[in-house]
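INTERNAL AUDIT FORM
Audit reference: QA-55
Scope: verify that the stored structure record matches its stored sequence.
Auditor: D.O.
Record contents follow.
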Amino acid sequence: MAYKKHIISWFIYSVVLYLIYKYAVKVDDSVEHAFTFVILQVLMFYINLIGLLPKLFDKKKFVLFGFLNIILIIVIAFVNTILEDGYQIESNNQYDFFEDLLAHSVPSFIGIFIAILLHNYRMQLVREEQEKERIKAEKNFLIQQINPHFLFNTLNNIYSLTLNNNPKGSEAIMQLSKMLDYSLYGNNQEYVTLKKEIQYIDNFIQLFKLKDDELTHITFDFTQTNLQVLIAPMLLLPFVENAFKHGDVESEKGCVNVSICSNKHVLKFSCKNSYSKIKKVDRVGGIGIANVKRRLELLYPNQHQLTINDNNNNFEVLLKISIHGN
């Protein structure tokens, strides 16, 4: 399809140039002038676009690139001058000949200029596509990191339930299956509804609560939300998971408070937890928050605000992002 665009573009350009010669400049043999002008431009254009630009210019061989173009410009301008003025050049008209030679180099300069513009445009598209692929690969890699991290911690919770033959162990496995279903299939989508993300977080909290009936200092408020707005999957859970992992919610005064509110344009997420400095935490898989920070940079550049406060044994995450309506 690209060659068809080239043919059409050159045809339109030739017609416009002919009309300029015919009615604006009013030169004799306007067809011949337009044809010669375009042929020279086409020649210099494709010599540069196909040969000199990718083989010399892109490899930063600028001196050789410039030298070869100068030689080509002189040769083509000379040929064009001979074609238009004929072979009979009187000695007293020598100055006019070199003046014509300079004038006839203009098509070559224009052809080179257009070739450089198109080549740079193509290279920019290639770089943008490569950057998109790099970002996509990095996002997928980060999501794949989340799953083992979450799975490791969740299996620890289930293990604690089944260790003493707790009947809630089967319920915990069911909760886990729901979460795995979302993490496996939800990650295949660039965005999911906030409703699915909330259900995922709620399943995680309910799974954790199965460990102890006395875990009453856990709140999850999502009453003021537009459930149909879109958000990147698995974006909020690592903050919640981090609160349970590092917090002291199982102690008498420990707590975890999670809230989400949103409209069609903005999502506000808050996750607060108390913690004890003497609590020993298994460090395996500790990639959650660093992971999400990087994903936010990739998914919501200049569209999010993340604030993390750590004061008086209280850890707080505040996240505000611009989101997409459904």
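Auditor finding: record pair retrieved intact. Residues 156 and 162 are 10 Å apart (CA to CA).
Action required: none
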